[in-house]
Amino acid sequence: MLQSMTGYGKATGTYNDKQIRIEIKSLNSKQMDISTRMPGQYREKDLDLRRMVTQQLERGKVDLSINVSTTNVVASTQINGAILKDYYNQIKQLSDSENIPLPADWFSTLLRLPEVLKNEDQQLEENEWFEVAKITQEAIDQLVKFRVQEGDSLAKVFTTKVDNIERLLGTVGQYEAERIERVKTRLRDGLQNVSENYNADRFEQELIFYIEKLDVNEEKSRLQNHLNYFRETMKKEHNPGKKLGFIAQEMGREINTLGSKANHAELQKIVVLMKDELEQIKEQVLNVL
């Protein structure tokens, strides 16, 4: 079963007066790359959260964010009265000495000044951490579900592209006999233009050698095996993204060799079409876990 590395999950929950919302996003990456954003109160559990993500998502560029809102504002934010009073006195003194008008809305002005509002970091309770871990797991489950759905779509794309390459490979045979005859005729005509008294036996030997160099049966066979192996790997292996990429590279080598040996306009067209299908496979394989 294929999974995409692209995914999104979101889950919410509550603990006492707090509403906790957790979002997790993932994109394709060669390794696991995690970035986290969370309130300072939860920072002590950063490694635990990263471990949860790594164990279940395995690979990808992952962004985990935790947002907390509370209905009890006083519990989380307090006004620093001493600093507020000091700001008030300083502003009044400057107003008197510099003849600057006093603010019309004192509180609006003072509450925006540094350190007037202070957030009190409370110690993380064990039960609250259990709730955060539970919500995180729900978000991860949603993301995995998203990845599976995307993986199903990718599997359909790969199946279509591999089938197209196989169909194109099946058309190569109809041009092989014609191609050999053209080569044989061209070589014989070339020799006759040079001399009519060429050695026929030596010509046949050289022709056999040349034709063997142009033979594409091995490339056809290997490419067919790679196509079959791609299908098998896609269906049976767990998170086969990297392996599918390697197989696609091998498919490319055989297609390139077919092109170099083609020596025929129609075969060259077939090779170009194969390459186009393969490039689309390679692009999408980068998204497979």
Automatic annotation (TrEMBL):
Task: Quote one Gene Ontology molecular function term.
Answer: hydrolase activity
Q: Which InterPro entries match?
A: YicC-like_C, YicC-like_N, YicC/YloC-like
Q: Which ranges carry the Endoribonuclease YicC-like N-terminal domain?
A: 2-155
Keywords assigned: Endonuclease, Hydrolase, Nuclease
The cofactors it requires, by name, are:
a divalent metal cation
Keyword Nuclease among UniProt keywords: yes
* Pfam families attached to this UniProt entry: YicC-like_C, YicC-like_N
| Limits of the Endoribonuclease YicC-like C-terminal domain | 175-288
- Give yes or no: UniProt keyword Nuclease: yes
Which family would the database say this protein is a member of? Belongs to the YicC/YloC family.
What the entry lists under PANTHER family is as follows: UPF0701 PROTEIN YICC
Q: Protein name, please?
A: TIGR00255 family protein
Q: Which organism is it from?
A: Paludibacter jiangxiensis
